């Protein structure tokens, strides 16, 4: 506990200091202030928990100092000392929220009781401060633990400038199965958004059960929505930094108390990501404006897929699935109808494999189809499809050792085309309808090198070629080879080739 003493009498100063060190060896006692002016300066510098204040100080009245502190909303505990037992002084001190009023000469047992009482009150208030915080209030509201209450509204308004009856806006960032891995990074990005704006107050909450982060915006400019700001600036920033597929959802509340209902609705709205795609900020008002068309189930494609299974033509079967996914993604169908179609398609294909099912395969298949019905992203669906094929045909993924799969061949072709344009593993995987993790594993397994190593090798060869055959400057070469920074290019070049680009150019000339 930090203590400031405002006392003019040197003898009493010494007695108080000695007594406080005995009462609490860990107390931090500031240098003694001899008058009200020194006391005020010391209090402003030290920000003490407790002030021991003489009512009659040099150059000013102690109660006047206390009155000034209270006007400035300084809520520190105050213990008043006085030689005057007059009721009017005691009454003034109590009205200014002094914790105790001790008469001089101060008796040590009385001082001890008064100081320990103040310390206990401070500890209680600090505990309440931790509990009565914006995150805890909003979490309690989210969990449905708060009901309309005038006293609570008044307290939150006085302390935080808003009440639960006020409007708010919610931004949900869903991270899916990457929640544990990306949680800290995503939270930091949202906290940066919070710290760099003065247009609204906000609170970031972790919703572990939903694999999501919630950002609740409150106390903003009246009538000013932050939707456009988040759609045009925040969402693209999050997608660029997190790389992994994320889903962003937005909602406006008439009052913060409606938070539980809003979150449930936003959970359901996530599946519109299947239609709106990466980088969208999903909002109920925008969903309602979409022109949805009736789903046309591709019966002929299903027949072709079943035929491919019976013929053992796995390449044709994969192409059927690619056509199915393209059909679902290129038209404005309801998300529920898209998932229902994929489930129906899978059952038809699975029934063609029934002769090689394991005994418990049907339950496993049902589990994967249930996962598809609950999916809110294409990466979830493609990950589930990999498991589905492993169940219906354990040999489905086997490839001859001397061949590279069509999947990896297409990835290699895309790398050759776009390596100098900053293409990423996730972008390639998305175009090939597989997860980044799966493509990375298969690429390494079948080629013996990683995706990033392949990109680097192609870029270094490009740099070599430009160093040998042109007189371009390093900045120009860097840009043509897909590097944004010439210094970084030089460092990678030296690590790979063993010399700087300038040394390589001299050597070759």
From TrEMBL:
The keyword Transmembrane does not apply. It holds the Pfam family Response_reg. Residues 409-507 form the HTH araC/xylS-type domain. The modification 4-aspartylphosphate is found at residue 54. The keyword Phosphoprotein applies. Keywords: DNA-binding, Phosphoprotein, Transcription, Transcription regulation. GO terms for molecular function: DNA-binding transcription factor activity; sequence-specific DNA binding. GO terms for biological process: phosphorelay signal transduction system. It comes from the Bacteria. InterPro entries: CheY-like_superfamily, Homeodomain-like_sf, HTH_AraC, Sig_transdc_resp-reg_receiver. Residues 2-119 form the Response regulatory domain. May play the central regulatory role in sporulation. It may be an element of the effector pathway responsible for the activation of sporulation genes in response to nutritional stress. Spo0A may act in concert with spo0H (a sigma factor) to control the expression of some genes that are critical to the sporulation process. This is Stage 0 sporulation protein A homolog. It comes from Muricomes intestini.
